[in-house]
Amino acid sequence: MLVKPITFMNESGKFLKSLLSCNNCELDKSILVHDELTLPVGRMKISVGQGDGGHNGVKSVFSGIGKNLKRLRLGIGPKLNPEIDLANHVLSKFSSDEQATLEHHSLLFLEALKSLMTEGVEKAMNLYNQPLPTKI
Q1: In this structure, is residue 17 part of a structural domain?
Q2: Element (H or E) spanning 73, and its range?
Q3: Is residue 20 part of a domain?
Q4: Contact at 8 Å (CB) between 44 and 73?
Q5: Which of 50, 76, 95, 135 makes the best surface tag, with the fewest CB within 10 Å?
Q6: What is the DSSP letter of 75?
Q7: Number of structural domains, the chain?
Q8: Running DSSP on this structure, what letter comes out for residue 83?
Q9: What is the pLDDT of residues 23-82, one digit of tens each?
Q10: Crossing angle, helix 121-128 and helix 96-118, to 10 degrees?
Q11: Rounded to whole angstroms, how far apart are CA atoms 49 and 45?
């Protein structure tokens, strides 16, 4: 089951436990896919059992279902302009170069997610937590 919340991102974990339970989804088989400021655009990182890193949506999910969760973190890049509000940065559109980078790596992102689901977190981390070319 793929879930995209209709609540604000900061409240995305509010109903997650009951949603998963009602649909007979096991928590240990759940994967959280989310944006990550600390990774450059087009990079990804698979992790499990780490902190929320200040991400309020992740914090909400952890509050709802616990912290021992497999995650696929997709880089959106850091906020470069200090005058731009963090929320505006996160919600802004990608530049044409960033969009091209994301499209170039999109199949790799899907392969990593499939590996995480079928081969487990350790193998997926070994395969996909490697540096990717930053230019296409």
Answers
A1: no
A2: strand 70-75
A3: no
A4: yes
A5: 135
A6: E
A7: 1
A8: T
A9: 999 888 899 999 999 999 999 999 998 889 889 999 999 999 999 899 999 999 998 888
A10: 150
A11: 13
Which residue is listed with tokens 């392969």?
111
Determine the straight-line distance between the first and last CA of the chain, rounded to whole angstroms: 32
This model's pTM is above 0.90: no
Could you tell me the two tokens for 73?
A: 């973190």
Domain for residue 65, yes or no?
yes
Cα(16)–Cα(22) distance, rounded to whole angstroms?
A: 10
User: How far is residue 128's CA from residue 136's CA, in Å, rounded to a whole number?
Assistant: 18
1 compared with 132, residue with greater pLDDT: 1
Distance of CA 92 to the CA centre of its chain: 17
| One-letter amino acid for residue 69 of the chain | L
Q: Is residue 18 part of a domain?
A: no
